Amino acid sequence: MSKLADRLRGGRSNESKKAVTAEQYLTFMLADEEYGVAILSVQEIRGWEPVMTIPNAPAYLRGVINLRGVVIPIVDLRVRFGLSTQTLSPTTVVVILRIASKTGKRCVGIVVDAVSDVYDIEQTQMQAAPQFGQDTHVNLEFISAIATLKNKMITLIAIERLFDLDALVNDLQ
Length: 173
Known about the structure:
Blueprint: H1 3-8, H2 14-20, E1 22-30, E2 33-38, E3 42-47, E4 61-67, E5 70-76, H3 77-80, E6 93-101, E7 104-112, E8 114-122, E9 126-127, E10 143-149, E11 152-157, H4 165-172
Parallel strand pairs: 2-11, 5-7
Antiparallel strand pairs: 1-2, 1-8, 3-6, 4-5, 6-7, 9-10, 10-11
């Protein structure tokens, strides 16, 4: 039976069954490495614009912006991940994410070098982050999985574990 006929009868073809198990991820570049966040947490992507700095804020907090009447903290992921800093370029963007917190959903912006792509990633393409042992200082708490797609690997970020969003917002008030 053809795939179209199967769909018209209410069934699913093998392709659509496969798609159901996949999740979409927006990927972006940081220091020549590709990272991804669940597309459902992405509210919008904006070009870089100056932010209002906040005194005594953590080093990774670049400042805040006013987005349609809502104050949004802007986090530099290079600094948060302990990567080398880089001068902002025309490809630098801010990805606005909507993240569940203890007090409800909140928005935060993350500064990334460039947006890369959107991928459908299946569970079979994901592996747990490698364990390096207790004697190392490698922090894997922000990594939800490593995805392998063709010839590349993408680090999938558990964005809700990246920072305590409630504490970050409370510090701004």
